[in-house]
């Protein structure tokens, strides 16, 4: 800072700072005539000399008259100069020191809604995403449905009775809820608030009906991903092989899936979870999150 001030005042009096004399031989002696800015392209930085013997560094963004223009300072040759000296000279020439402030602020926490027909692989994709990605909170949905073999309360779902669930509704504790195949499912608000405040991205797993409700509530402040199998045939195979369905529920789920696929247009992204390609589907979801994080106009969700 002190050095810059010194350079600036010396340059103002058209004197070479003693520093430059001592450290290196200055190839651009301070001229007696001033250089002027000339550039049509604001991204180009150009040298233009009034006196060919005295090239000077000029900022292309400057449209200032001589009195407001930062005083020019000799820039040592890049190939031989000490890096620190070069930086100081550039700063002095530009009239301010280089900022270490990030060019772009940290991205906003994101709400990612993952939806798709029953059996398409929502749980499988989320389970894998959980293993490979940090900084994400997977909201545990509350449900009144019975626990399936292998499911853990508080990890896969909060398993509650119908009465408990309805009390949560009354207390306005759920962002959205629905009755799905005779069972209630809902998203607790508190978890989202708590983790977003800590800077986590939030993943919500909802059925198509839930995604439509969330779109109404959150609009474009969240990102909506529609998961599909590669074909209806594959979806049916997957549901049969899961061995969780009766003939009746299988029929209902498949008929519903036929109708649900028409809702793709209400989503931001579609991800194909093809047979044996779970890893690719997860990678694509990760890429979507990365791309969203790099957006200039960030989504900003408030719950
Ligand atoms: N890419 C894949 N390849 C093969 N099998 C898969 C793939 N993705 C998921 N599965 C399997 O398909 C079945 C259905 O997946 P999953 O339970 O994750 O679907 P879901 O969308 O969460 O269903 P629901 O909404 O009914 O809970 C599971 O047995 C799962 O292991």
UniProtKB/TrEMBL annotation:
Highest taxon, organism lineage: Eukaryota
Spans traversing the lipid bilayer: none
A cellular component term, taken from the record's GO annotations: cytosol
Database matches in InterPro entries: GK/Ca_channel_bsu, Guanylate_kin-like_dom, Guanylate_kinase, Guanylate_kinase_CS, P-loop_NTPase
Family, per entry: Belongs to the guanylate kinase family.
Signal peptide: none
Enzyme class: transferase
Name the record gives this protein: guanylate kinase
Chain ranges of the Guanylate kinase-like domain: 109-290
A GO molecular-function descriptor: ATP binding
SUPFAM superfamilies xrefs: P-loop containing nucleoside triphosphate hydrolases
EC number: 2.7.4.8
Keywords, comma-separated and alphabetical: ATP-binding, Kinase, Nucleotide-binding, Transferase
Key word Nucleotide-binding present: yes
């Amino acid at each position: 800072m002190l050095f810059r001030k010194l350079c600036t005042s010396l340059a103002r009096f058209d004197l070479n700072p003693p520093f430059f004399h001592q450290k290196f031989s200055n190839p651009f002696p301070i001229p007696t005539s001033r250089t002027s800015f000339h550039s049509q392209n604001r991204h180009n930085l150009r040298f233009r000399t009034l006196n060919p013997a005295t090239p000077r560094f000029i900022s292309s963004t400057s449209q200032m008259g001589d009195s407001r223009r930062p005083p020019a300072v000799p820039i040592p040759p890049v190939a031989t100069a000490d890096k620190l000296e070069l930086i100081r000279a550039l700063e002095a020439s530009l009239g301010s020191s280089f900022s270490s402030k990030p060019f772009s602020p940290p991205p906003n926490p994101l709400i990612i809604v993952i939806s798709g027909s029953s059996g398409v692989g929502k749980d499988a994709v989320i389970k894998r995403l959980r293993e490979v990605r940090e900084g994400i909170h997977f909201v545990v949905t509350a449900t009144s449905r019975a626990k399936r073999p292998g499911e853990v309360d508080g990890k896969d779902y909060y398993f509650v009775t119908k009465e408990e669930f309805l009390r949560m509704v009354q207390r306005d504790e759920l962002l959205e809820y629905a009755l799905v195949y005779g069972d209630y499912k809902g998203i607790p608000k508190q978890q989202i608030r708590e983790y977003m405040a800590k800077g986590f991205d939030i993943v919500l797993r909802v059925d198509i009906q839930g995604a439509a409700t969330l779109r109404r509530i959150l609009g474009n402040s969240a990102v909506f991903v529609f998961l599909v199998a590669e074909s209806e045939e594959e979806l049916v195979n997957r549901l049969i092989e899961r061995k969780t369905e009766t003939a009746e529920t299988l029929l209902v789920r498949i008929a519903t899936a036929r109708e649900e696929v028409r809702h793709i247009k209400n989503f931001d992204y579609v991800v194909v979870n093809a047979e044996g390609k779970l890893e690719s589907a997860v990678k694509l979801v990760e890429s979507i999150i990365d791309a969203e994080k790099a957006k200039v106009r960030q989504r900003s969700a408030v719950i």
